[in-house]
Amino acid sequence: MQQQTFWGFRDASGPIAAPLDALLELGAYEALWSRQNASFKSIADRFRDNPDLRPSDLVPLDEARAVGARVLNKLRNRTGRFDVRIHGETEYPERLRDATHPLEFFYFQGNWALASTPAVAVVGTRKPSQKALERARFLAKKLVADGFTVVSGLAEGIDTAAHSAAIEGGGQTIAVIGTPLGEVYPKRNAALQEKIAREYLLISQVPVERYEAQDFRVNRFFFPERNKTMAALTQATIIVEAGETSGTLVQAREALKQKRKLFIMNSCFENSELTWPRKFELEGAIRVNSYADVRRELVGTA
Predict the structure, then answer these.
(1) How far does Cα 100 stand from its chain's mean position?
(2) Cβ-contact 186, 204 below 8 angstroms
(3) How far is residue 148's CA from residue 298's CA, in Å, rounded to a whole number?
(4) How many alpha carbons fall within 13 Å on the CB side of residue 139?
């Protein structure tokens, strides 16, 4: 962690920023996840009902400090440098509050300035067709050429193609992962994840100790939650290819719910086995044939 103690904190009661003990809040956030039935929804609901609270207001001080020290040591050993963002802090992106379950706390590595850049998510199946891979790469390169940061989830398939093409195109990329910092899934993306963490921006909302305490069958539910964060972090989502039960559809629902643009490639509509493209089109998604269609919606010209 770059700073062990304080970040600036907005305080509506006066002009002087109140101090924020980041390590204390880290420990309190992790401790909240140790409670029975803790989830992103249950934690978000507690702060929605009490918007002036910090995580440390809900956890005994000694427990928060002990957990914080323990997690800090783990993450330093696994990742080296990392940092955190806490709701209410000056650099917390307000657009994340549009998510169904807004994050109070999350971890990151890399260039935080990318979080405030114009961004578009390029997402889809882990098992894409060759044509879909080519479309993802083409879209990512076009987006970065137009100054957009490409956001994706660092999964196999479309996500990997989007991140890689953004980098090859000389642009910027953000990965929002469904594991804690220092964990890699899939393992084959270890080098790509390390590069993004070092040179771009890697974000994780996944609690370290809760993840360690559960098996993989339970931890897989962290992945769709990160799709909700990707929807909130971006001004639009492009679905390149996805099956009928794909986790990508979580992001589609979130994007529409958050009043973001949702683009669906026309090739998805051409698959007669899929029902979701037309369903989302009826709810406001935009069918696109090419990047020119996307660009027209994003910047006004093809």
Answers:
(1) 13
(2) no
(3) 10
(4) 37
Question: How do residues 223-273 score in pLDDT, each as one tens digit?
Answer: 999 999 999 999 999 999 999 999 899 999 999 999 999 999 999 999 999
- The rounded distance, in Å, linking the Cα atoms of 203 and 36 is 25
Read off the tokens for 258.
């958050």
In this prediction, residue 8 carries a pLDDT of 40
Which burial class, exposed, middle or buried, applies to 27 when counting CB atoms under 10 A from its CB (0-12, 13-18, 19+)? buried
What pTM was computed for the model? 0.92
Prior bond of 186 cis (ω within 30°): yes
| Nearest partner of 222 among 176, 159, 178, judged by Cα | 178
Do 119 and 150 touch, CB atoms closer than 8 A?
A: yes
Q: What's the rounded Cα separation, in Å, for the pair 230 and 79? A: 22
Whole-Å CA distances, 57 to 78, 236, 238: 29, 35, 39
186 band by pLDDT with thresholds 50, 70 and 90: very high
Confidence band of 185 (pLDDT split at 50, 70, 90)? very high
Contacts of 21 (CB under 8 A, 6+ apart): 5, 6, 56
pLDDT of residue 88: 87
Tell whether the model's pLDDT for residue 2 goes beyond 80: no
Q: Which of 82, 117, 115, 87 is nearest to 101 (CA)?
A: 87
d(CA 239, CA 70): 39
Report the C-alpha gap between 294 and 139 in whole angstroms: 9
